[in-house]
């Protein structure tokens, strides 16, 4: 039966993780895996999370099933965190999912059920798993221009020209903030222009929000998607709590459909049915941690302070690397790094240069030049800058 299966293609990030683990050198630097790290290289459990978990252990009296949509308190608090008061709750259908990855997949399945002929438009540079998830749902896909790589900035003219080609019923996938892998975000004006274009073309936006709080702050990071949600009649939204709550292992995500009033019940039932077909009931523990934190004023303040500190550390690494590269190269060609948002940037390096960094300096990054800024610290920033300057000469 299984002899016809082809050998699986190893995921690039997983392969990089294994290569880094197998490298015996002291002082090696891991800039590949997309997790937050503190100055000592750990991915800590947030104090607010520990406090919420202690409360849950003390107070929870049952591990019985909830609904196919998940815990109602989690869905409500996450809706408020993501959307604020941009749309009334009567327009929002939502289900919990095992992480943001499952949220994206479930919404792709929803697209296939509703409009299998739709094309999903994806930025040319995007999270590596977006493409496999869309293909797994058997949807057509087209890229739109996004990054001006030489400038490290948005190719605004190219993006808008490509999006002018979307057809009615097509879906446009947008990163809510902290674009992965480029770190180049849309301005509020960009969001407004995209909203007007999609409304005029009759296309549906699909916003993937995986890093809320890591750009400019919780509300500022959600400003674009809230403007979009208030403007268009239909929108899809996936959310993840892996980064901003540090719940990587707990797999906490949410899938939302924003629809006209009167359609919510049908969409909620369809999303719950999709959950039933794949994993039935979404896991509860991580979602309960999130709703406990967001529902308690004291824990919420604690969490926001921790998240603010994480965001500022990443921003400090950005500024530090831009300064170190300016000194090491004698130019400001990498100054864009300081102005980008979130954990990731794409460094303008060739594959051979990236391989040299790995082989000669023990510096690990993905083959397209994506680096995790949270993987740096005060000691490793100058090491990376000097090594990059060397391979660029």
Which key phrases capture this entry?
single chain, 7-stranded mixed beta sheet, 15 helices, Aspartate Aminotransferase, domain 2, 2 domains, alpha/beta, globular, 393 residues, Aspartate Aminotransferase, domain 1
CATH topology of the largest domain: Aspartate Aminotransferase, domain 2
Question: Mean pLDDT score, rounded?
Answer: 95
Assembly of the depicted chains:
single chain
Question: What percentage of residues falls in helices of 4 or more residues?
Answer: 40-55%
Q: What is the overall silhouette?
A: globular
Total individual domains:
2
Our count of helices gives: 15
Q: Could you state the order of secondary-structure elements as H and E?
A: HEHHEHEHEEEHEHEHHEEHHHHEHEEH
Strand order of the largest sheet: 2-10-9-8-7-3-4
Terminal CA distance = 53 Å
Low-confidence stretches: none
CATH architecture of the largest domain: 3-Layer(aba) Sandwich
| Rg over C-alpha atoms, rounded to the nearest angstrom | 21 Å
How many strands, what sense, and barrel or not for the largest sheet? 7 strands, mixed
